[in-house]
Amino acid sequence: MHWKLFATLAEAAGDRTIELDRDTDETVGDALDTLLDAYPDLSAEVLNNDGEVADHINLLVDGTAVTALDGLDTPIDDDTELALFPPVSGG
Amino acid sequence: MDCCRTARPDTLKRLDASMCGMQTLSVLGPGAAEVVGSLAAVLDGRVATIDRTETNPVEPETADGAYELGPEGSWRGTTAGSGLQPLLDDLAGEFDYALLAGVSRTRMPTVVIGDHELPEGALLLERVADRSALELEAIATALEETEPYVTLETLIDRVKASPKAERSGAIATFTGRVRAKDAPDDSPTEALTFEKYEGVAETAMARIESELAERDGVLAVQMHHRVGRIEDGEDIVFVVVLAGHRTEAFRAVEDGINRLKDEVPIFKKETTADAEFWVHERSE
Predict the structure, then answer these.
(1) Which of A8, A83, A89 sits opposite B197 (nearest CB)?
(2) DSSP code for A81
(3) DSSP A67
(4) Which of A39, B84, B206, B251 has the highest CB neighbour count under 10 A?
């Protein structure tokens, strides 16, 4: 699947766009685990002390917030675009 | 990305620069003026060329700028050193393209010939060893994918062209700009650099525009946010509302900029005299 990272998260990973093999990943949660395994420095930026996605982190699935879908259980396919970013700060 | 082609694919043809924003291109290096001339002939639309090379000596004692009007209203100019931004602002309402020879600026798509240096902050579109190696059609195509030069005036012209304009008694606007200092002893901000989530940011802005335009008394809403490096004192973001009366206009402008700051995936990095940091890190 395709990942897009922005701002501090892109800097922590060292990449703005990341292509990962989906293999057995069926959900957004699986894909996130795969991403964080491949880029361990991202974990500290993305997860809270309980190992969950921190409240201020945005996770989008094809442009829609994962919180408006089925959360980490949202299904993905090979073409899904996932995006991960800190609070927006335009203007 | 061009607003016209994303929002209204059926009107892909560039009919009116004030609706689409003006594409800009700088050419630097030996033969820049000739390349600009050849490119102007290839582009479809109204083209302004601005020349600041040694081939066209300026005479600042006689004028601040010299412009030559050609057939069908196209014109070329020789600038006298200062005021490029005001000049571009003026051109933006009338021209589809501004081609600059021998001068570039931050964020401007730039073609470099030979070993001429790329100015800091300019966007490198292509570098070639010799101008004979340039493919004009390819540059023209690449130019269409770059950010257009959009001004507050561009957006005001767009809302005035609304079919509902006859019911409008008010236009309210908001301009966000780079603030050097928030307090007297602040380390001065030199620039802000914005990145956006391409595609998703435009969709989010279009949703805010259309939701605000559905309000009673609000007739049209236009927003634009620049990306890349923006220097101290430069404009960042514009919100323009066409409304029946001032109260709805003011409210929609305020809600528009507030929603943009909350909802649109755009990210700001601040460069001060002392440090560089992503803004959300300091505002939490």
Answers:
(1) A83
(2) E
(3) G
(4) A39
| Confidence check: pLDDT of B4 > 50 | no
Q: Which residue of chain B has the CA closest to A61?
A: B200
- Do B248 and B218 contact (CB within 8 A), yes or no? yes
What does the DSSP assignment read for chain B? --HHHHH-GGG-S---HHHH-BEEEEEESTTHHHHHHHHHHHSSS-EEEEE-STTS---TTT-SEEEEE-GGG-EEEEE-SS-HHHHHHHHHTT-SEEEEES---TT-EEEEETTPPPPTT-EEEEEESSGGG--HHHHHHHHHTSPPB--HHHHHHHHHTSTTGGG--EEEEEEEE--S-SSTTSPPEEEEEEEE-TTHHHHHHHHHHHHHHTSTTEEEEEEEE--EEEETT-EEEEEEEEESSHHHHHHHHHHHHHHHHHHS-EEEEEEESS-EEEHHHHH-
- The residue of chain B with its CA nearest to that of A9 is B278
Please judge whether A8 and B280 are an interchain contact, meaning their C-beta atoms are less than 8 angstroms apart. yes
Mutating which of B196, B203, B208, B280 best tests the A interface, going by the most A Cβ atoms within 10 A?
A: B280
- Please provide residue B165's backbone torsions phi and psi, each rounded to the nearest 5 degrees: -60, -25
- Whole-prediction pTM value? 0.84
Which residues on chain A are in Cβ contact (under 8 Å) with B261?
88-91
Residues 24-63 on A with a CB inside 8 Å of B are 56, 58, 60, 63
Partner residue facing A91 (CB), from B200, B203, B236: B236
- The per-residue pLDDT of chain A, averaged, comes to 95
User: Over the stretch B106-154, which tens digit does the pLDDT of each residue have?
Assistant: 889 999 999 998 988 788 999 999 988 899 999 999 999 898 999 999 9
pLDDT of residue B76 exceeding 80: no
